[in-house]
Amino acid sequence: MSSDTEATPVRLASPSTLDQRDTGAGAPFRESVFDVSDATVTYDGAPAVQGVSLEIHRNQITAIIGPSGCGKSTFIRCFNRLNDLIPSARVLGRFMYHGEDLYGAGVDPVEVRKRVGMVFQKPNPFPKSIYDNVAFGARVLGMKENLDARVERALEQAALWDEVKDRLKKGALSLSGGQQQRLCIARALATEPEVILMDEPASALDPIATTRIEDLMHELKREYTILIVTHNMQQAARVADMTAFFSVERGAEGQRHGILVEYDRTDKIFTQPTDKRTEDYVTGRFG
Amino acid sequence: MSRLEGSRRTGRGRGLAFQLALWLSLAVGFLTLGALLVQVFTKGFARVDGKLFTDPPSFDPLIAGARPAIFATLWLMGLVFLFAVPVGIGTAIYLEEYARKDRWYNRLLEVNIQNLAAVPSIVYGILGLAFLVRGLGLGRVVLAGGMILTLLVLPTVIIAAREALRAVPGSIREGAVALGATQWQVVWRQVLPAAVPGIATGSILALSRAIGETAPLIMVGAVTYISFNPSLLGPFTALPIQIYTWTNQPQEEFRVLAAAAIIVLLVILLVMNSFAIVIRNRYQKRW
């Protein structure tokens, strides 16, 4: 792709400008998409997750694992500014996206969400037709040309096209749970984001549907950068290139908040973690 | 074994007594309503004829009709629908989707709306007389009647619409926001359509309350005798007032006429309520 995208200053850089800077000579170097430093999220002043720094790499799957209450979901919601919806939430620290601060002045959250899609824990299709679900993002963002083709492509990418192509006008709620979740993935893909956030995307699904979602993630990482929160360690081990282990720490006054304990290649986290807490967790001696 | 049987028997006795009490409660309402209906229908059904709909009231009960009152009631319903539904939905959307619950003025607003729903209708009538008829100089016209009934049912519409909006799961809002929808788009394209069944039923039930109101209309000067059809800025009467006037007459024939008018009022009510049920069943969504 050529550099045809001259983004306006306050807008975020388009992912396509960055393709040309891709890896050199097959080295394990991966370009970073997000560079987070010292991230803290507070609710009414009390930290839910504190002092997290990590880099998310392009075309990789990064998993965030950890016990309940360690702030995994809170943390992942910073990447598409979904915490903006909670009035009492404050996001501190820096979330750099290709060198631009996601929380900088003048950044439009809609522009962020256009580039960073999200799939939620519980499938949440809109009570509309399958087609309208997938087309929703494109419609609200004003990407109205070739909507049919866009919907078809997104459904194909989410491995759902063959199952629904004959009933696109049927209600999305008639689909099974696993299909609904793939529909939600298709919905997120339809606006052609660069990053997909997944907040425990398979935790409400049966094992077969879970396997399909995991296979899909492997397919998708060729085109997308994926950040997944999971409480299922096997899932992280199966799908993720990089894994971040979060844990709960007690503050000075006994209040609990999440911290990043260790962040490394997935095989390293699961076979030779450097931190004792990580080892305890991945070997099942914790929680 | 015998101990188990024994305890079960007393349990069954209590259950039966409880069920009996429930039936009794049901019977109180059901029989009263039944008696009322039977009485009204046996007395007035024969009088529900063409004359009732085409002729104006008269001092001779045998040739009297309720045409002006029926028209005025339809006028009033139309006006209340036109005013109360948009304003009620607008207020509900503000309170549910935009208002920050931690602000004192929003809480004050909420408490006030709940209180207004319980204010006696005669008080609204006095307000209408002072503010609409005299203050704004509208006079004793249909428009003033419609406006005062609107104020009367507005709290009910707001409360019903808020319930309906609140019943739309937060996951729908989150899903839409994550796809890049602005707050306005979330409300207009997802939340409001999903809430339509609840809002529609609530609004129609509020209208049903307005149709039977007499006191505030008397206050804003609905007249008891009128021989021509009402117009927006003309004098008027309404079915409940017409019924009241007729029952006050000494001749038995007027009572029969009143019973016939009650049947008309009941039928209008029934039509409106069945409309509410149809809407609810037709658009009901499941999550």
Structure description:
The complex is a heterodimer of chains A (287) and B (287). Chain A is an alpha/beta fold. Chain A has helices at 72-76, 109-115, 130-140, 147-157, 161-164, 177-189, 207-220, 233-239, 266-271, 276-282, and strands spanning 32-43, 46-57, 61-65, 89-97, 100-101, 116-119, 195-199, 225-229, 242-250, 256-265. Chain A has 10 helices and 10 strands. In chain A, helix 3 (130-140) packs across helix 4, helix 4 (147-157) packs across helix 6 (177-189) and helix 6 packs parallel to helix 7. The longest helix of chain A is centred in the C-terminal third of the chain and has 14 residues, at 207-220. Chain A is globular. Chain B is mainly α and 287 residues long. Chain B has 2 domains: 2-47; 52-283, MetI-like fold (Orthogonal Bundle). The longest helix of chain B has 43 residues, at 2-44. Chain B is globular. The two termini of chain B are 45 Å apart. The mean pLDDT of chain B is 88. Classes of the chains: A alpha/beta (287), B mainly alpha (287).
Label this structure with key terms.
heterodimer, A: 287 residues, alpha/beta, six-stranded mixed β-sheet, four-stranded antiparallel β-sheet, 30% helix, 25% strand, disordered N terminus, B: 287 residues, mainly alpha, MetI-like fold, 2 domains, 11 helices, 76% helix, 0% strand, globular
Compact overview of the structure:
Chain A is of the alpha/beta class.
- What characterizes the major β-sheet of chain A? 6 strands, mixed
Mean pLDDT of chain A: 87
Strand order of the largest sheet of chain A: 6-7-8-3-9-10
Pair of chains with the largest interface and how many residues each contributes: A-B, 26 and 23 residues
Number of domain units of chain B: 2
Give start-end ranges of low-pLDDT stretches of chain A.
1-11, 13-27
CATH superfamily of the largest domain in chain B: MetI-like
Largest sheet of chain B: none
Q: Could you tell me how far the N terminus lies from the C terminus of chain B, measured between alpha carbons in angstroms?
A: 45 Å
Binned strand content of chain B: under 5%
- Report the oligomer: heterodimer
What is the CATH-assigned architecture of the largest domain in chain B?
Orthogonal Bundle
Order of helices and strands of chain A: EEEHEEHEHHHHEHEHEEHH
| Helix/strand structural class of chain A | alpha/beta
The proportion of strand residues of chain A reads 25-35%
> What is the helix content of chain B?
over 70%
Radius of gyration of chain A: 19 Å
Q: Sum up the overall morphology of chain B in one term.
A: globular
